[in-house]
Amino acid sequence: MAKKRPGTxxxxxxREARExxxxxQTGLGIAVGLDESGAGSLISRYENGIHQPKLGxxxxxxxxLELPLTYFYTxxxxxxxxxxxxxxxxxxARRLVEIKGRMKRK
Length: 106
Description:
By secondary structure, the chain is mostly helical. It is 62% helix and 0% strand. It is built from six helices and no strands.
């Protein structure tokens, strides 16, 4: 079954960034302070273009994924790749390990 393509450029970039950094939808939600019980479904709605997060939450996602906010609105795939590569860091990976550890303890 083919993966559904997000309905907005923001949703598409959010999914690409989340997956490239190794976060689950729930893990990303937890990383920005969302309640674990609804984090995954809320991220799914953002990625599928059902809802658009407010600017403050977009900034939290950008910070958690270590990407500039402009990445999420760049329509050109090559330009988005260049932005993402320029912003690469190991901070999201360390944060992901921290979140997974916390989830296992529950």
